[in-house]
Amino acid sequence: MNAPLECRLEEHRITSEPFFLPRANEIEIGLAANANRLPLLLKGPTGCGKTRFMQYLAWRLKRPLITVSCHDDLSTSDLVGRYLVKSNEAVWQDGPLTLAVRAGAICYLDEIVEARKDTTVVIHPLTDDRRELPVEKLGKLYSASPEFMLAVSYNPGYQSVLKDLKPSTRQRFVSLSFDYPSAEMEKDIVIRESGIDEEMAIKVVKLATMTRSLKESGLAEGASTRLIIQTVRLISSGIDTVSACRAGMLESLTDDPELLAAMDEMIFALF
Amino acid sequence: MELSEQKKRFYESVSPSRPNSWEVDEIFDLLSELDETTREALLSHVGAIWPVSHSLCFAYLANGVKASGHFPIELLGEWVRLILSLYEKNGLLGARQFMIDVDKFFLGPMRGEAGVGFEEIRARMVLYLRGISGRSFQFNIAKLPSTDTRTVFLPEFLNTFPGKKNNILLYKFLVSLQWGHVESRIFSEVLDQGNGVQEQFSRYPDRQLAIDLFSVLQFVKVFRRLALELPGLIRQGRDLCVGLIKRIAPSGVEKGKCVALQKLLMQGVRTEGPGDEASSPLTTGGWERIGDPWNAGVFDVLPDLYATFSRLSGSYTLGCASLLLGEFDFARARETIRLRREEDKGKFVAMLAGFLEQQGEQQNKESEGGNVPQSLQENLLLLMQGKQREKSSDGKKSILLDNEGLEVPEELAALIREIATDLGTLPEAYVQAAAGQAGRGVNKRESDSHEEVAGLSTMDVHIYNEWDYRRAGYRTDWCSLSEKTLHPVRSRFVATTLEKYKPQLNKLRRQFEMLRTRDRFIKRRRHGDDIDLDALIEALGDSRAGLAASDRLFVQLLRDERDIAAMFLVDMSNSTEGWVGVAVKEALVLLAEALEMVGDRYGIYGFSGMRRSRSELFHIKHLHEPYGAEVQGRIAAIGPKEYTRMGPPIRHLTKKLQETQSNVRLLVVISDGKPEDYDDYKGQYAIEDTRKALLEARGCGVHSFCITIDKSAHDYLAHMFGRGNYIFVDEVLSLPAKMAEMYRLLTS
Fold it and tell me: Which comes out higher in pLDDT, residue B138 or A17?
């Protein structure tokens, strides 16, 4: 059983250094949390580098990173594992969480608020000093390997009251808050990720910053760093700037005609 | 048809009214000049206009005689439609103006030449300016563009250029220009100089020329700055500027000053690179002494420039170019800046004091000794030392307490940054004031606010604590809130609203119906519509492995259970009088209709009151009460009352919500600005108490969301309501639709 485990884990190993520009001391905190075997909670708006941070941390720690994107149909079995029938034989198949617990990998539950609350309680015994995972069907209690780390992420900006993290879950984590990087830093990230010239990068970053000021005026969320990169990639592929900004950034933010018109004015003012 | 026959028909169509016969005769005298078909066409619209307004109808006929010569008779219907809509919007005067100049107001727009009213593009400009500046400005109407650093004043209507597009662009350019003036810090520069500006201008014999030259220099300075910041805008706007500059005209025969002014402006807005300055008349008139006018300080260049110009002959009229130069009301700006700085200082002092006090308390707890003021003094000392370090590190602000790096709250740090950018440094006086207040502890106004708790009856009176941020603690049993019922009124308000929003209502109903009927396959059920393959495979595996297989092997199509209890708390303070109040009521009607569709439980309450002894909560609809004529009558009865003390009603409804059995409890507060009461419940105190009440609600598992109706988003909103927990609506008319939409987003 060990061989296939190793084999499946290798797929999750990150071999080359992912590009991550720290804003403050998040890397140190991440490493310290790991050293003290504490779970991590990453929060922040969409596309501001939470997942990239996890990739970087996994690379630094030389551990495999198993990412689970949560959704509202995610069941406990999907995380822990289940029996499967293989050629007339019932074979136990570890779920991603069990896999990580046993092999000492990092398990990253992305957008944890999307999962149903009864599913997320399964992580509770893993997040306190017990660090263990009961697997009912196997009748086993796995103690997490010292190298195991749990990380979850969520976006507090979503306004739906149905999607919030329960305090009993929340108060088990070391929390790192992510936000959009400063304009200077964001420019560097955009240049690094897309290879565009500096002048254009500055302008597109400025446009994104402008959209972020509209957050309380009806825009659910401003343009993320990811959207900026997406936009400049369109520009590098020869799409004209205005169309690229519209398609790559603005139209992805809202359907409201008034907001779109105002943001159009911003494009024309900038380019 | 004979004229007399037509007159008879006219009387018939306006009956049962009996217009003065001399008035009718006068009109028909005019009409007799027209041919019969045109006359007939004109009279055919009387039936539509007469019931709206009799005077409008006479004015229409009188003007129609002249107007009908300007356009083909087929366009008459369109002309009448515009007259009526203008009358409804601007009254008789507005409609008259429109009728008098057919070419400008009716035919011009049809040819694609049109001016644009600011109201038309206001919403777009508010968002645009918020986007480029990152903060909120207010807009107001004035003859010439200007700003007081908080409000941007713009002309009501622009038809400077023939095309509508260009006029919109001009508005956008002027908005950006005014923002540029604020950003150039000319106003704070002037403020820091003291009273010198007015004197500076009066020093010149020709004061107007000095002011104009100052405006030109400032305009060009901002223009060049914008060219770097918003290159797209400048590329488009440059032609407009050139067009406007060309309209500067000499007032007499002598053209010297006019030409020079034009040259100066043209040089300012030219593309780039040095122009042919040799040909400029300015080079010969001492221009070389000025050097590079665009990079030096405006006030440094002004004297030389004035001297150069005063030697030139003639005078000029600015005409439309005055839009570019705008107006500078330094006195007003100074007052605004002073107010803002005072507010900032107050906010800073309160925040820092609260923060220091908290730290002090923590330390005291740890050491079980020492008095607060003393430890605060130490903190202060350390803070002042720490300030030097703050400047060197560009990261987060941190202050040093007992050699322990302690992070200042995000908001305080942002405020410190703001003050430091404004004043160049964080004044020590501010910090000292904070320490003073922190040391004082209790509220200085407490002694004078011991008014009688009068008029209390024991029935339905609830006593609540109130949060005093200055002492970082509660004032126990401070407020009393009485629950009252609003007496329903019989009116057509609800019916009219439903009629008015009929199209939106249909859409809303459909959307909310979809919320209700959001179907979902529930897996792993004992019974169901289909086999759950995942469960089956798992059960198969389990049973082969020797485990008891689950019998939950089906999927079932189920409607999502919405177990939501929502409370709407409506501000009934005096300030909601007028449009705001009506919009809120309309919004409630629409929302109630939509919620009836989806079946969520909801309650509606209004609040107002005066002083801490008399907070009032008006019941409009209880959570379990059916929505019917009674409730509709109460919605119609909502009206402005007294003040806005937000804490007690929020606490009361939180308590009510806690008593309900619901998965999700939602409290929506609808208000129109800052909480404020007659006593000391205002400013920071009121904001902090409201914030605390909302935090308490959150602690009890009640989600809160606030809808604020205001002209602009204020910075305190995020602090008071919490990020992402509020929305501000500047366009009152869009409130009904937005409110229902918000509720839908919140609960789906």
Answer: A17
Give the integer Cα–Cα distance in Å for A52 and A189: 12
What pLDDT score was predicted for residue B449? 38
> B418-445: b or e for each residue (b if 16 or more CB lie within 10 Å)?
bbbeeeeebeeebbebbbebbbebebee
User: How far is C-alpha B387 from the geometric centre of its chain's CA atoms?
Assistant: 36
| Contact flag B728-A216 (C-beta cutoff 8 Å) | yes
A202 and A127 belong to one structural domain = no
pLDDT at A237: 93
pLDDT-derived band of residue A184, with 50, 70 and 90 as boundaries?
very high
B167, B155 contact by CB (below 8 A):
no
Q: Which residues of B touch A179 (CB under 8 A)?
A: none
Q: Which of B128, B230, B738 sits opposite A262 (nearest CB)?
A: B128
Interface of A with B in 2-61 (CB under 8 A): 24
Q: Which residues contact B512 (CB under 8 A, 6 or more apart)?
A: B594, B595, B597, B598, B740, B744
B728 neighbors A216 (Cβ within 8 angstroms): yes
Find the domain containing A125 and state its range: 2-177
Closest-CA residue of B relative to A138 is B547
How deeply is B292 buried, as exposed, middle or buried, from its count of CB atoms within 10 A (0-12, 13-18, 19+)? exposed
In chain A, whose CA is at the least distance from the CA of B134?
A213
Could you tell me how many CB contacts below 8 A there are between chain A and chain B?
123
Chain segment B181-230, per-residue pLDDT in tens: 988 888 887 777 766 666 778 888 888 888 888 898 889 889 988 888 88
Nearest chain B residue (CA) to A220: B724
In this complex, is the C-beta atom of A118 within 8 Å of any C-beta atom belonging to chain B?
Answer: no
- In whole angstroms, what is the distance from residue A107 CA to residue A35 CA? 16
Which parts of chain B sit beneath pLDDT 70?
Answer: 1, 112-113, 194-198, 271-296, 358-410, 435-459, 514-519, 559-561, 579, 711-714, 732, 748
**A10 lies in the same domain as A53:** yes
ipTM reported for the complex, 2 dp: 0.71
More confident call, A236 vs B373: A236
Which chain A residues touch B545 with a CB distance below 8 Å? Answer: 83, 90, 92, 137
Please indicate, yes or no, whether the overall pTM of this predicted structure exceeds 0.80: no
Q: Which residue of B has its CA nearest to A271?
A: B232
Check CB contact under 8 Å for B395 and A268: no
Q: How many domains does chain A have?
A: 2
Chain B contact set for A262 (CB, 8 A): 123-128, 131
Cis ω for the linkage preceding B648 (within 30 of 0): no
Domain harbouring A95, CATH code: 3.40.50.300
CB contact under 8 A, B232 and A89: no
- Does the pLDDT value for residue A202 go beyond 80? yes
Q: Do A265 and B544 touch (CB under 8 A)?
A: no
Distance CA B589, CA B651 (A): 25
A23-37, A186-200, B45-59, B106-120: segment of lowest average pLDDT: B106-120
pLDDT of residue B669: 87
Domain final residue pick, A177, A206, A235: A177
Of residues A90, A160, A269, nearest to B745 (C-beta): A160
Task: Tell which of A177, A211, A233 closes a domain.
Answer: A177
Cβ burial B144-156 (10 Å sphere, 16+ → b, else e)? ebbbbbbbbbbbe
Q: Quick check: B544 and A90 CB within 8 A?
A: yes
Q: How high is the pLDDT of residue A57?
A: 95
Residue A111, min C-alpha distance to chain B (Å):
17
Question: Which residues in chain A are contacts of B131 at CB distance < 8 A?
Answer: 210-211, 213-214, 262-263, 266
Mean pLDDT to the nearest integer, A153-171 = 76
pLDDT of residue B402: 41
Interface test with B, best of A265, A268, A270, A271 (most B CBs within 10 A): A265
CB under 8 Å to B393, separation ≥6 — which residues? none
